[in-house]
Each structure stands twice: as structure tokens, then as C-alpha cells.
Specification:
Elements lengths: L2 H4 L6 H4 L19 E7 L5 H11 L1 E7 L10 H7 L4 E3 L18 H13 L5 E4 L6 H10 L3 E5 L1 H9 L5 H9 L3 E3 L5 H5 L1 H12 L4 H16 L7
Parallel strand pairs: 1-2, 2-3, 4-5, 5-6
Helix pairs in contact: 3-10, 6-8, 7-10, 10-11
Length: 234
């Protein structure tokens, strides 16, 4: 599998083939009032206490944070978990009470070319790959069928596409292919946290277009299974 096929050059592969199903009003079939589990986000370089405090108001109960190399000590996951023990779960290591999950970022050309081999070598270790619309959807779907340790994360680009398409099209197909191995993972760093409330609002909007069981799985239940932690969503 060549890098050029797997990675998109400046575009979102999945987004290119979204059918013209966007409507002015999508049919709402569900109402979600529970809490949300963000299965993966990078720490911003500054301002994390404020961002996390706001996340609580948006309805996020758990956020798995991965380190930012340029953040100071007070903005790293260990320090933030001390301030927000019920919200923050540290990433990249079996810290806290969470099960260890590998977040294979940042993706480089060398890493992506060997990523499938790594999935094979560590078949019992769960991997979470987010922002999946960067990649060839057919490749990700094949990997999901072959590598049961691969989990995928939907972040703002995927959520926006799903909202705009009324939860139809290739990303919806990918979500169904992933089964219980698709989670919400906000993925972003500084700008991602600045726009976090809008991502959460879009995610809640998306949940109204999905059957209740599918919405709950995406918003928190699958992440509970991945990290072996529970939220108190009803």
C-alpha cells in the first residue's frame, strides 16, 4: 500500500465522495441528554485549566489527554489530572485507572507505511487512530475487518461531514463497519480546544440523526469499553 493512496494530498478523502444528501433540515430521530467521553485529545500548549473547566459545562465527563511537547509542566496530563481527577485520564501510558491504549500520532510517512505491520505485531494491544478522513476510507475499512485491535476516532472534520450529510454517506458506512470500535476523539491541540464547544455542539446535533444505541455508542459507550472506565451518562 503506497503512501499516496493512503494519505490525501491536502483534502479529506472521505469528504470527496460524500453524496449530495445534505438537506436544509435533517430528520431528527433521537434525543441525547447524557454525558460525553472524549477518547483522545492533545494537550494545548497553554490554557488547559480553563479549557477543561469549560469542557465540564459542555457535558464532557471524561477526556483522555495526550502530552504536548511544548506545554509547560502545569499543562501536562499528570498535573491536569490532579486538578480535574474526575474528568482527565492521562494518555500514552497505563497511568490512572485507564487501560493503556496506543495513540499512533503524529503520523509520519515512515510510520504510516509500517502501521499495519505494527497492528499485526501487537495484536492484543488496542490502537486508536483519529481524524480518519485523512486516509483512504477503503483502506481503513479493510483494516477494521482484519485488525480487531484497531479503533477509529471521529473528530471535528468527521463530525461536521456527518452532520452536513444527515449521518449518511461514506463516513456513516465506516462507522457501521467499525461497529463498537468507533469513538469520539477530539484530536486537536490549541485550535481544537479553542473550538471545542462547537465540536461538542455538532456532536450532540449528530446524535439526533442517529438511532439511540448508535449515538450512545459513539458519544460514550464505546470509549468506556476501550478504556475500561465508565461515565455516569443515563
Amino acid at each position: 500500500m503506497t503512501l499516496s493512496r493512503l494519505l490525501c494530498a491536502g483534502t479529506l478523502c472521505v469528504g470527496l465522495s460524500v453524496s449530495a444528501v445534505k438537506a436544509e433540515t435533517c430528520p431528527e430521530i433521537n434525543s441525547f441528554d447524557g454525558l460525553i467521553f472524549d477518547a483522545g485529545a492533545f494537550v494545548a500548549s497553554t490554557g488547559m485549566e480553563g479549557y477543561l473547566d469549560q469542557a465540564l459545562t459542555y457535558g464532557v465527563e471524561k477526556a483522555v489527554l495526550y502530552p504536548h511537547p511544548f506545554a509547560d509542566d502545569n499543562n501536562q496530563p499528570p498535573a491536569l489530572e490532579e486538578s480535574f481527577p474526575d474528568l482527565v485520564v492521562r494518555g500514552n501510558a497505563p497511568w490512572s485507572d485507564a487501560a493503556p491504549v496506543i495513540w499512533p500520532e503524529p503520523i509520519t510517512s515512515n510510520m504510516i507505511s509500517s502501521f499495519e505491520a505494527e497492528l499485526v505485531r501487537n495484536a492484543d494491544q488496542p490502537y486508536l487512530l483519529s481524524h480518519v478522513s485523512r486516509f483512504d476510507a477503503k483502506v481503513i475499512k479493510r483494516w477494521l475487518g482484519v485488525h480487531h485491535n484497531l479503533w477509529i476516532g471521529f473528530s471535528e472534520p468527521e463530525i461536521t461531514q456527518l452532520v452536513d450529510s444527515c449521518a449518511q454517506g461514506p463516513l456513516a458506512d465506516l462507522m457501521r463497519a467499525a461497529g463498537n470500535r468507533v469513538v469520539f476523539s477530539s484530536f486537536g491541540k490549541d485550535q481544537g480546544w479553542e473550538e471545542y464547544k462547537w465540536t461538542i455542539r455538532k456532536l450532540k446535533k449528530l446524535s439526533t440523526y442517529l438511532p439511540a444505541a448508535q449515538a450512545e455508542a459513539l458519544l460514550y459507550k464505546n470509549a468506556e469499553e476501550l478504556f475500561k472506565l465508565s461515565v455516569t451518562a443515563p
